[in-house]
Amino acid sequence: MLPIQTFLAQEIFEDLEAALKQFREIAVDLVQRAADFLWFVDHSLNMYGALKVAGNRQARLEVIPGAGHFFERGFSGYLFDEVTKLVVPWFDDTVKGSKR
Question: Which has the closest alpha carbon to 68: 98, 15, 32?
Answer without folding.
Answer: 32
